[in-house]
Amino acid sequence: MNLIVPLAGPDFVGADGSVKALHDVRGRPLLQAALDGRSWRDEIQSTVFVLHDDAASRKFAEGPLREWYPDGKQVFLSHYSDGAAFTCMAALSLADVSAGPVCIDLCDILFDFNGDPVSTIDQPEVGGVAITFPSDNPVYSYLARDTSGRIVEAAEKRVISNEASAGVYFFKNPAVLAKAFAHSLLNRQALAHRDLLFVCPMFNGVLDQGLRVEALEATNVVDIKTA
C-alpha cells in the first residue's frame, strides 16, 4: 500500500515557528505518534511526504522526518496549493506512486482502531474507505448514508450526519484517486470549502465511478485541533 502524508498547509508551521508535526501528544511528536500508531502500518510499502518549501519545513524534513522515516520520499511545493486534494496529487505526479491501494493520512488525529481497511478496500466493489467517529462539530468533514445504510455523500466542514472523518482516507488505486480528484475539479463550486478542495469530498468522485465507499469507526479519538 502507498501512503501519502500532506504536510504542506499554511497551518503546518505556526506563527511562532513551531512545527505542528512536532507537537507533543501522549509523550510523542504528533506525526510519529499518528503514523506509528496506525494498525495498518506494516502494510505500507511506499511513503510520500508533501511539504511546503520554507525554512522550517526544510529543517524538519532534513532532521526528524528523515531520521524517523529514512525511506520516505519528500516532495516540496513552492507555493501553497488550493487544498489538500491538490497537495496529494503532487505526490502522485512527482513521486511515482506505484499501483495498489493509496492511503492519505492527514496525521492530526490520533485514535484506536480494530478494523481492517486493507481487506475492505480490496473488495472488488469498494473504491474508498474512511475512518470515522461520532461527532457534530463542523470543524470536521462528514459522510452521509441513505436509508439502506450505504454511504451516498461526503462533505467538507458541513455536518450532514453524525459520522465525522478522522482524517484518514483509502482509495483502491491511483487511478480511482485521480478520477475522484477530476470529479472534484469538475464540481468545484459544490464541493469546495472556502474555494479549497479537500480529500473527503473526493469520495463523491469514487461514488460517481460506480464504486462503494465504506466507513470504519475509530474510538478514543484525540484531535489536537479540539483537545
Please describe what this structure looks like.
This protein is α/β, with parallel strands linked by helices and 227 residues long. The chain has a single domain (2-223), classed as Alpha-Beta Complex (Spore Coat Polysaccharide Biosynthesis Protein SpsA, Chain A). Helices cover 27% and strands 30% of the residues. It contains 7 helices and 13 strands. It has helices at residues 30-37, 55-68, 84-94, 117-121, 174-186, 188-191, 203-208; strands at residues 2-7, 24-25, 28-29, 46-52, 73-77, 102-105, 109-112, 126-134, 142-145, 151-155, 163-171, 212-217, 219-223. Strands 1, 4, 5, 6, 8, 9, 10, 11 and 12 form a 9-stranded mixed β-sheet that branches. Strand 9 and strand 10 form a beta hairpin. The longest helix is centred in the N-terminal third of the chain and has 14 residues, at 55-68. The chain is globular, with a radius of gyration of 16 Å. The mean pLDDT is 94.
Q: Distance between the terminal alpha carbons, to the nearest Å?
A: 31 Å
Average of the residue pLDDT scores: 94
Helix content: 25-40%
pLDDT below 50 for ≥5 consecutive residues: which ranges? Answer: none
CATH superfamily: Spore Coat Polysaccharide Biosynthesis Protein SpsA, Chain A
Name of the CATH architecture: Alpha-Beta Complex
Structural class: alpha/beta
Instruction: Please indicate the count of domains.
Output: 1
The best one-word shape is: globular
The CATH C-level class name: Alpha Beta
Strand content: 25-35%
